Structure to design on (239 residues):
């Protein structure tokens, strides 16, 4: 019940034969790469025309970067600059991917669970790497065990319980990130697709649903990025 996209249309005309069938099989990957190309082209052009007297386009892009930077400073603190490229890229990529589905004959790659899980796993492994690098392996295990001191260390019961609880929490995080993003974007796309086939008299409701879908696309990209920043903040040593 999805909106027909350009790959599906080509595959339908070619009856799934040849290159069209291959593209149809990997259409989520194709649209994910398309989002990468669009972002690279737009930001590449913007970066080539930097000026001390900024144009409107430069001001727009600088506002995006400074806005993300300010948000990360509030969440992570003084070390936020280190994670700005990663989380900023996540936000922009997810936002563009979410919005692709509202362009005629395009599709949001974030409607695919495999795509959102891949993004969530990137966050998961980078957080684990950062935790070991910042705290050391022993320090990270102690962090997961609740940093027990005194008599709590000798009992082992509470530290082991905290360790198991935190391990489960760490493993559930990528799944919750992936499911939240995929489910929200998929449901918005399905609603727009359903309303698109109801005829002319449903156009006002369709227009309203598209506006809500665009808002949801921005919100879901922000939520994914903010939660990722929170995960970094939980393991980064603060001043």
């Amino acid at each position: 019940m999805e909106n027909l996209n350009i790959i599906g249309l080509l595959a339908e005309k070619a009856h799934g034969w040849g290159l069209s069938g291959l593209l149809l099989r990997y259409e989520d990957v194709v649209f994910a790469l398309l989002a990468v190309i669009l972002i690279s082209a737009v930001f590449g052009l913007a970066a080539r025309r930097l000026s001390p007297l900024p144009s409107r386009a430069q001001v727009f892009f600088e506002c995006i970067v400074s806005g993300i930077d300010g948000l990360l400073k509030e969440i992570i603190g003084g070390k936020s600059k280190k994670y700005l490229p990663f989380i900023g890229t996540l936000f922009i990529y997810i936002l563009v991917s979410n919005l692709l589905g509202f362009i005629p004959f395009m599709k949001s790659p974030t409607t695919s669970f495999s795509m959102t899980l891949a993004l969530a796993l990137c966050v998961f492994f980078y957080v684990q790497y950062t935790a070991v690098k910042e705290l050391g392996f022993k320090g990270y295990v102690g962090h997961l065990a609740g940093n027990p001191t005194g008599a709590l260390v000798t009992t082992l019961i509470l530290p082991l319980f905290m360790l198991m609880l935190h391990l489960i929490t760490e493993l559930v995080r990528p799944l919750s990130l992936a499911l939240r993003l995929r489910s929200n974007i998929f449901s918005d796309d399905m609603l727009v697709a359903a309303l698109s086939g109801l005829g002319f008299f449903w156009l006002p409701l369709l227009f309203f649903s598209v506006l809500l879908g665009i808002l949801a696309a921005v919100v879901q990209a922000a939520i994914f990025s903010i939660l990722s920043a929170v995960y970094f903040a939980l393991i980064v040593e603060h001043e």
